[in-house]
Amino acid sequence: MPATDFQGSSVPFASIGRSLLSIRRDQVHAVDGHHHDSPGGGAAHDLELEVFQKHVADLFVDLASSPPAAAAADELLSLAWVRRLLDSFLICQEEFRVILFSCSKGQRVLLARPPLDRLLSDFFDRAVKALDVCNAVRDGVDQLRLWRQHLEIALAALNGGRPLGEGQLRRARKALTDLTILILDEKETAGGSILNHRNRSFGRSSKETHHRRTGSGGAAASAGHFRSSSWSVSRSWSAARQLQAIGNSLAVPRGNEVSATNGLAFPVFTMSSVLFFVMWALVAAIPCQDRGLQTHFSVPRNLPWAASITSLHERIFEESKKKDRKNSCGLLKEIQQIEKCSRHLAELLDPVEFPLTGEKDMELKQGVEELVEVCNALKEGLDPLECQVREVFLRIVRSRTEVLECLSKSHNPE
């Protein structure tokens, strides 16, 4: 989607906390205004940078904290948690943009001078690579939608409010078998056996998407779902290699870089680290072409946000090494529920003897309840997640365009 199509955020930023804009009104305005206008930036500038680092830390401390029992659906790697992660990224991205564009004229000239121009160029190179990850993740969300359709077919057969017969059981078994085949195919793709499809771009119109989802044609329509005249990545594209490219040469600013950039080098490093972690976490959670989580991630422990992000990285990586998750096509909690629920029901339904015994009937009812739970979670969570991934994509495009325009004006003043 072109950057000009951006119409503002649909994400409820207020639900997570006050943005840097409100904090600056409360704190930065307390500092003498002439400091902010001076070429060196002064106390207001330093406070603004400190507040940004602190707010990034607060957001990721919140993500790393264990939820209360009442919020179990919001636990690590659940759909709700991934949505909170993207909320946090969008807030960080907006506040980073505020820092860059709230500079005084004397400070803004630094954006076009070495070494800050190189640091910003490196950051936006990483951001452009992240766009491919966004497209691949959206493709993974569509995979989950397809899985949900098979679950709903099984649910309709088993939970139709009438006595079960051989026809209903046969239909449920077929839906679960088809789902198992899809999951196995996706595991092969995630493990490096790249199938003959590509992730589609966000440029596809909603009308075309609706036609593909609801049009006739059965299996042919489902297969065509991945065909588009606007591919975003090649058939040989690899999520693992893309993550390595995003994290490549990500290094903390040196002393001379910090002084030469009036402290702006640190916000650039912070956003680069946040971008890298968020893309890595998305690939970890959602089915992607040639997934791989072995990328190196290390940040100095003395930074305010380092401990919480490092803790999250370690916890997610440890989760990926568990025996029952090692070969999964995604660490999303709901994917684990899909695999567990579909496997359990398939075992119950093959074979089934009539009439159902009391114990078998109870097990089947429990399996149906679990199926209802995971279907509801997917129904409520997938569309908002796709909207947020789309928002991340558009925010990156818009931010990059604005900075490039600013640099162009700095190089060619009127």
Secondary structure: elements and pairs:
Elements: H1 20-26, H2 33-37, H3 42-64, H4 79-101, H5 105-108, H6 116-158, H7 166-190, H8 206-214, H9 219-224, H10 239-247, H11 255-260, H12 265-285, H13 306-320, H14 333-349, H15 358-411
What does this structure look like?
The chain is an all-alpha fold and about 425 residues long. The chain has one domain (about 20-200, about 235-410). About 65% of the residues lie in helices and about 0% in strands. It is built from 15 helices and no strands. The chain has helices at about 20-25, 35, 40-65, 80-100, 105-110, 115-160, 165-190, 205-215, 220-225, 240-245, 255-260, 265-285, 305-320, 335-350, 360-410. The longest helix has about 55 residues, at about 360-410. The protein starts with 19 loop residues before the first helix and ends with a helix.
Count of separate structural domains? 1
State the order of secondary-structure elements, H for helix, E for strand. HHHHHHHHHHHHHHH
Q: Based on helices, strands and strand pairing, what is the structural class?
A: mainly alpha
Name the quaternary structure: single chain
Work out the strand percent: under 5%
Mean pLDDT: 80
Uncertain residue ranges: 1-21, 27-40, 193-201, 203-231
Rg calc: 24 Å
**Would you count the extended β strands for me?**
0
Spatial separation of the terminal alpha carbons:
31 Å
Major sheet:
none
Helix content percent band: 55-70%
Task: Count every helix, treating DSSP H or I runs of 4 or more residues as helices.
Answer: 15
Protein name: R3H domain-containing protein
Membrane topology: Single-pass membrane protein
Family: Belongs to the ROH1 family.
Region (Disordered): 195-224
